[in-house]
């Protein structure tokens, strides 16, 4: 029998403050993947550090810098000091992530990957008390070679080469590794985190280096707009999204801003404007089935239930312009709701 080779160097690094409750649940899933675990604490008073130490983590600490990239880069520096050097690969996890992995497949994927950054599926939980939220899956860059890239951005931070330029990005199938995330699983948590992120995004927009870089500027504007929506500041979000559409026409970011505006209009009952915006999305190359998904909601709110039912028939799954996947369960629920409306109107 051939002995299984040692896995390629892999360590997990996370930042946290006052996350003892969720860490007790999350850390065993991390240590099942790697023996190297480092926590960078930014001012906890609830036993976070003790929970991490009990799980075998090394620890560094510093005050919260109001900058997620700075905190994550400090965490990497702390890990390098604690471990003697950084491993070839780092898995970046949050305190409220659960890691699910096929360790053998992960070992093989990291050993053979030509890329410096790997994205993974992140399954985000909905708030069962809030029917306005939905579970969805997105992809995020969470595995990376720390010798090649660093974190950049105060909020919704990204991995970039320290001297600029291009970096190879691949994707790990969810059968190899995926994360579960429930940090936004209640209205209260979501609003508090979004209010914090609004402040961070506008602080980044005030940076002259960000203003001088059109790509970073529009990305940060989108980060701010998303957070404004989550914080309940709809009018401010609309103003910023319209700014993106006006200043960055024809870009992917402008398409996403249009998508956000269409959904805000649907939520506010401004269905005619929503239909105009979805028409613009179609012309700019958005997925036809996603456009149909938005259109049928506007149509049913306008009273055109039969037309909405026919339109929804072409939709199999919901994938928005940011690549978030909502799955077919949401489509089935909407079809059933529309059929009930259709039957009620026919009675």
> Helical percent range?
40-55%
Which geometry do the CA atoms define? globular
Order of helices and strands: EHEHEHEEHEEEEEEHHHHHHHHH
What's the CATH class of the domain at 10-181, please? Alpha Beta
In CATH, the architecture of the domain at 10-181 is: Alpha-Beta Complex
Secondary-structure content class: alpha/beta
> Could you name the CATH homologous superfamily of the domain at 10-181?
Spore Coat Polysaccharide Biosynthesis Protein SpsA, Chain A
What count of helical segments does DSSP give? 13
N- to C-terminal separation?
71 Å
Could you explain how this protein is built, in words?
With 347 residues, the protein is an alpha/beta fold. The protein has a domain at 10-181: Spore Coat Polysaccharide Biosynthesis Protein SpsA, Chain A, CATH 3.90.550.10. The chain has 13 helices and 11 strands. It has helices at 20-31, 48-54, 68-83, 103-112, 187-205, 208-211, 214-230, 234-247, 252-268, 271-283, 288-301, 305-312, 327-346, and strands spanning 10-16, 36-41, 58-61, 89-92, 97-101, 117-124, 136-144, 150-152, 158-160, 169-171, 177-181. Strands 1, 2, 3, 4, 5, 6, 7, 10 and 11 form a 9-stranded mixed sheet that branches. Strands 8-9 form a two-stranded antiparallel ribbon. Helix 1 (20-31) runs parallel beside helix 2 (48-54) and helix 11 packs antiparallel against helix 12 (305-312). The radius of gyration is 22 Å and the shape is globular.
